[in-house]
Every structure is written in structure tokens, then in C-alpha cells.
Design a protein that fits this description.
Helix content of chain A: 10-25%
Largest sheet of chain A: 7 strands, mixed
Protein name (chains A, B): 8-oxo-dGTP diphosphatase
Distance between the termini of chain A: 41 Å
Family (chains A, B): Belongs to the Nudix hydrolase family.
Radius of gyration of chain A: 14 Å
Strand content of chain A: 35-45%
CATH topology of chain A: Nucleoside Triphosphate Pyrophosphohydrolase
Number of strands of chain A: 7
CATH architecture of chain A: Alpha-Beta Complex
Pfam families (chains A, B): NUDIX (PF00293)
Oligomer: homodimer
Order of helices and strands of chain A: EEEEHEEEH
InterPro entries (chains A, B): Nudix_hydrolase, NUDIX_hydrolase-like_dom_sf, NUDIX_hydrolase_CS, NUDIX_hydrolase_dom
Keywords (chains A, B): Hydrolase
Number of helices of chain A: 2
CATH class of chain A: Alpha Beta
Number of domains of chain A: 1
Chain lengths: ~140, ~140
């Protein structure tokens, strides 16, 4: 049986809080690999791991944060959303505490207040994903 | 770049109505291929199609019904949910009118009232998916 399906990835909208539960902002990364630009942290799901485990792993790898998943936001699968190849992304809303640090997969990690998110700098369909998040 | 991710599939909980908007039941199929048993209709997403288009195509191919998507139910990705290989399934709730007919991919199509769904006959994690649907 020869099955070919799109790649599966996860993306996480990380709501960052301080230890007093004060909202600090949304965590975005400056991508190290093409397409270059600002992105919601995320990555590919590995064979053998659930999408939830992939999300927690990828958030740690890119931002050093230990996230808690709050809810599934949506599934983004337009064949043109990733300029490299067809990738289906499962987007989650999550929560974390502490200070993010850019890890191997990210050039830089930044925290944005809702009103300061630079929608025009976002790669893929991440502006759409963030708008969907803000409108629910 | 060598990327390997799980396969992506879609599954649809079809709420069937008659032309007077009377609920007829949930559409399930008797699988033609292993694992044999009763299943929510579904299938693999093709490269180049969105998960929503894959859902509409697969429902037509298996039941002959033209479905309308109502909402995303969830993403099911336990590596052990499919005994053959790791498949991530995106499950939708949808709606259709008319009479289902078993098409090429299904041996038989059946319509069950909620209280008559034979949970113990369902393959994969479809009993769990149906329970999640009924509990929301």
C-alpha cells in the first residue's frame, strides 16, 4: 500500500504569564531557516508521538518554555500555506510561565503585547492563525 | 531536508437528516479493508487538498452523500490508534440529506440512532471519537 499525505506540523500560540498571573504577551520567534521572518513557534510531528506531545516538545526546543495546552485552535491545511511543500498544521493555544530563551531552532524569541503584534512580518499563514485566536 | 511525519486522515461524523429536517441517525460504514469492522467514514488526505476538501471527497466516495461541515471535533493522534501505522486523524462533525449508498471504499453503509450505536463494534479509536461528539 503506497500512501502519500501532507506533512503534519504543530504550532503553538503561547500566552506568557509572570508568576503573579499577569499576562506578559504572546511568544513569537524569529526564524533561523527559510522562510525567514517572524512565526508562531512550531515544528513537525514525529512518527510515534501525539500532536500534543509534539507541541510540548517543539515549544521547549524553540523557546525553552514548558507549556500547558489550553485548547485546540484549529487545523490549517491550505496546500499553499507553506511555500516549501504541503503541510497541515494543528494549532493550539497554550500557556507558559517564565522567560523564553531562543534555543537551537530559533534565532531569537520575542514577546509581544496583543496590540504590538507585527502582523505584516509573520510568515506562512500565521497572521491568519493569530487573528483566529484573537477573535475567539 | 528529509522530513517524516505521520499520515494525515480525516473522519466525518455524518448527522443524517430527511428533507423535513428530521434527524435520521449517524452514518457508519462496514469496512471493506482491514481492520474490518464498523467505522466512521474517512480516509487519507491527498497532497494538494485541504482537510475540508478531503473530508467532503471521502464522505462522497464512501457514502455517496454530499456533506456540509458543521465544525471541527478534534484531532486524534495517539500513535497506537491505527494498528497499521501512525495516522493523525482530523475529525469533523457534518450534516447531510438523503440516502447513503455504499460506494467503492465501503462494504455497507448503515444509519444508527444515537442509542443504537454499537460502540463495541467500532474499529480504531472511533468509539472514543463518537463519545467525544456525544458529550459536547
Amino acid at each position: 500500500m503506497s500512501i502519500k499525505t501532507p506533512f503534519v506540523a504543530v504550532d503553538g500560540i503561547i500566552q506568557l504569564f509572570d508568576s503573579n498571573e499577569n499576562f506578559q504577551g504572546i511568544v513569537l520567534i524569529e526564524r533561523k531557516n527559510p522562510p525567514l521572518g517572524l512565526a508562531i513557534p512550531g515544528g513537525f510531528v514525529e512518527i510515534g508521538e501525539s500532536v500534543e506531545n509534539a507541541l510540548v516538545r517543539e515549544m521547549k526546543e524553540e523557546t525553552d518554555l514548558d507549556v500547558e495546552i489550553i485548547r485546540l485552535l484549529g487545523v490549517y491545511s491550505d496546500p499553499k500555506r507553506d511555500p516549501r511543500f504541503h503541510t497541515v498544521s494543528i494549532a493550539f493555544v497554550c500557556k507558559a510561565y517564565g522567560s523564553p530563551k531562543a534555543q537551537s531552532d530559533a534565532k531569537e524569541v520575542r514577546v509581544f503585547k496583543i496590540e504590538d503584534i507585527p502582523f505584516d512580518k509573520l510568515v506562512f499563514d500565521h497572521a491568519k492563525i493569530l487573528r483566529d485566536y484573537l477573535m475567539r
